[in-house]
């Protein structure tokens, strides 16, 4: 009987790992790794877990891994471009809110957390994955409209377009970093080439949150003038009842024509808030 060569198994393992690192890209899931290696999902899951324990991969979520750079000192090092893991963690999803506002140059503020809108159920709004903080908001699949495709390291991602970004932030001001920052972003949007009053109305109608027209009309009147077409469009779509300009801030003044409670300390100055 010829004794088995123990190096044969190790050689095959190295070949599989090398193939995976060459062809797997920046994010590895059990599904795509199994396809690359041509083995079962169960065998792949075990291999990924083993390579993670050996330091070749870093697990960011169950069944999702990223390669660990050879020069990396810490396996928990944040990814160079954190957006690339969003499709595997949250998809179907898009980058929105303050993160999209940064992308479209609607703000000079820099947020550490990445704002994500996902069709998946959200058990925890704030999540830290691979040392990267995410803030996740649920959105129905049929409301994932108004997005643009961007590419990061050959990874296809979606980000809300400038108009959808504004509408989302008006629907939930906390996704825009609070109403004062939303106001600053709206000012930048209104004076940019992205501004599209008709699209704002269309998106707000499709989103179906009646408070958006109250907030949008109030901001349009305050920043663009009472004769602006956007003001009339919002007035004709006002729903009954009063809303808060920002649910996180108790408004102490009611603007009856907009059925909107606003906080007394609110800035519409020309300077950006810092």
Q: Which descriptors apply to this entry?
A:
single chain, 274 residues, Arc Repressor Mutant, subunit A, 10 helices, disordered N terminus
- The number of distinct helices, counting runs of at least 4 residues, comes to 10
Q: State the helical fraction.
A: 25-40%
In the sheet with the most strands, the strands line up as 4-5-7-6
Estimated share of beta-strand residues? 15-25%
The helix-and-strand class reads alpha+beta
Q: Overall mean pLDDT score?
A: 86
Largest sheet report = 4 strands, mixed
Series of secondary-structure elements, N-terminal to C-terminal: HEHHEEHEHEEEEEHHHHHEEE
* Terminus-to-terminus distance: 77 Å
**Radius of gyration, whole Å:** 24 Å
Low-confidence stretches: 1-9, 73-77, 270-274
Tally of discrete structural domains: 2
Shape: elongated
**Could you tell me the number of beta strands?**
12
Q: Could you please describe the fold and organization of this structure?
A:
This protein is of the alpha+beta class and 274 residues long. The chain folds into 2 domains: 6-67, Arc Repressor Mutant, subunit A, CATH 1.10.10.10; 82-262, no CATH class. The chain contains 10 helices and 12 strands. β11 and β12 form a beta hairpin.
Topology (elements, then pairings):
Blueprint: H1 6-23, E1 28-29, H2 30-37, H3 41-53, E2 57-61, E3 64-67, H4 86-90, E4 93-95, H5 97-103, E5 114-118, E6 126-129, E7 132-138, E8 147-152, E9 155-160, H6 162-171, H7 179-190, H8 197-207, H9 211-224, H10 229-235, E10 243-244, E11 253-255, E12 260-262
Parallel strand pairs: 5-7, 10-12
Antiparallel strand pairs: 1-3, 2-3, 4-5, 6-7, 8-9, 11-12
């Amino acid at each position: 009987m010829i004794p088995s060569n123990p190096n044969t198994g190790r050689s095959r393992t190295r070949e599989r790992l090398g193939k995976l690192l060459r062809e797997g890209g920046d994010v590895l899931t059990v599904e795509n790794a199994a396809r690359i290696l041509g083995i079962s999902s169960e065998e792949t899951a075990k291999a990924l877990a083993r390579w993670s324990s050996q330091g070749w991969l870093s697990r960011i979520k169950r069944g999702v891994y990223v390669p660990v750079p050879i020069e990396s000192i810490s396996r928990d090092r944040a990814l160079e471009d954190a957006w690339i893991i969003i499709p595997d963690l949250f998809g179907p999803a898009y980058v929105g809110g303050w993160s999209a506002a940064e992308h479209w140059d609607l703000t000079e503020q820099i947020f550490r957390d990445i704002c994500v809108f996902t069709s998946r159920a959200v058990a925890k709004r704030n999540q830290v994955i691979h040392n990267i903080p995410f803030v996740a908001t649920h959105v129905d699949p049929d409301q994932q409209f108004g997005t643009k495709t961007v590419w990061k390291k050959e990874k296809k991602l979606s980000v809300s377009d400038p108009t959808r970004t504004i509408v989302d932030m008006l629907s939930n001001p906390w996704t825009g970093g609070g109403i004062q920052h939303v106001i600053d972003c709206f000012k930048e949007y209104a004076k940019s080439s992205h501004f599209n009053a008709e699209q704002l109305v269309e998106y707000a109608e499709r989103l179906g949150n009646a408070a958006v027209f109250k907030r949008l009309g109030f901001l349009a009147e305050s920043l663009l003038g009472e004769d602006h077409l956007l003001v009339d469009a919002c007035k004709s779509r006002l729903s009954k009842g009063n809303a808060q300009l920002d649910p996180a801030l108790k408004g102490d003044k009611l603007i009856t024509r907009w059925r909107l409670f606003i906080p007394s300390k609110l800035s519409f100055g020309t300077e950006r808030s810092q």
